[in-house]
Protein 1
Amino acid sequence: MKRTGLLAVIAVMFVVAILAQSRQPAGTSHTGKAFRFNQVKDGIYHAVGTGSLAVVGNSSFIVNDTDVIVVDDHVSPAAAWVLLEEIKEVTNKPVTTVINTHFHFDHAHGNQVFEPNVQIIGHEFTRRMLLNNSIGMPLYRNYLTAMPGQIEDLRKRIASEADAAAKAKLQTQLQVAENNLASQKELRPVPPNVTLTTHMTLYRGTREIQIRFLGRGHTAGDVVVFLPNEKVVMTGDFLTSGLSNMSDSYPEEWVASLDELKKLDFDTVLPGHGEAFTDKSKIDYFQAYLRDVWSEVSRLKKEGVSVEEAAKRADLTKHKDHLPIQGPGVPPLAAMRIYELLNGSARD
Ligand SMILES: [Zn+2]
């Protein structure tokens, strides 16, 4: 090769290296592993954050004969980037497909780290929300605007902490929060580039991967990922191991949609929050809770109680044996949502 040709090749390699490097988002630094991978069936993993990096929701991934499918991609580009790095320690097969169970920030804000040739699959509604103002919604706005105050608070606590071990722990929390904020600043929501409205099936060798919309519930466009041969279902926040967020929900329809989930033949649930579980009675407990939140908040509204007051007074403590409930009250965004639905003023 001529000298000029060689120089040109070196120059191109240099530029490619810089471009590859520049894809690494801000805020990825952390100590130890960011994820714990729980392999529930052959090649099927549930990824749960360890706390060394802000990831918030869980993801799952499926290692097939020649590729990897990721379900949900966490709270930030940094979290998704680190997930991909840690998946590389399990397999060198490429991630070809991402499935968004819904549009919420803690499940779909990693979409931007994937190359354009990766298929990002989600419900038509999820695409619409991520294309339009999903980051202007109260759920994400509240999350983002609280961050600087939390960082300031951690700094103050570090300054006044005398115990070395406690101080070190707070310092780790501060680093996690600062990294998360740095990554949120680079956020650019990316919508699914493949959509569905009822169902879609992916075939990979012997694997059948069904993506199903079971009706409105947690949002107007949640999908679950069901593997009939392995009897595994990935549920996002449609069904978690505890209480799901209700800020964009349809509580009454959610109960009926969960009945549809029960019709699927699975033995293992990989939820969007909490650990994997096999106990199907969790669905009944959550349905009972949803029915009672709806009737309790509706009752308070009928009595003329303000939405703020209803959020404090709604009493669901009778569900505390099965769900993480400490005392009376529901999240303000849940009460607000129910008031809006009753007023007929709720957005999609
Ligand atoms: Zn979530």
Protein 2
Amino acid sequence: MQRSERTSPIYTPDSGPPQGARPSPVILEKIGEEGVFRMLSDLYKKLEHSPIRGMFPEDMELASRKSAAFFVQLLGGRPLFSEVYGPPRMRQRHLPFEIDEDARNTWLACFAEVLEGAETAYGFPSEHMAGFRTFLDLFSAWMVNKLDR
Ligand code: HEM
């Protein structure tokens, strides 16, 4: 788990790219771009105190804004990520980081904590919570690029 070079071979999950539906655009309609940025900022605060902190850059707030830009467009909003960084190609962008099932579970657990209070904190629509969690579960499986041990 380091920022620079990978030392392990690239593993590709048998499941292939996620086929599930995107999360509902109603989420963005309800929480707004501002809510997405706050939610991702809160996620990165959790990641900062997690066992996978070392994968991330020094400036977690900046990193959170990059992810938030992606989530805005994923949720049907303005193409904030692609405009600045180009095509998403998320699996490819994660390849420099050695992500195994443990790392994935840590990431998901941090997001789950943020989602615990999301209805109150950002006005997240509860009827779209299950779909959003399923999306994160499926999409994160596709980010795994290292076999455990
Ligand atoms: C499976 C667990 C995951 C881990 C351990 C992980 C880890 C990371 C790391 C280390 C970075 C680099 C941060 C930086 O240098 O700025 C990153 C970037 C990013 N991640 Fe993840 N990630 C995971 C899953 C996801 C998922 C499921 C999504 C979206 C649904 C996502 C969205 C992003 C975005 C948008 C970026 C910025 C990409 C870029 O640098 O251009 N990540 N992630």
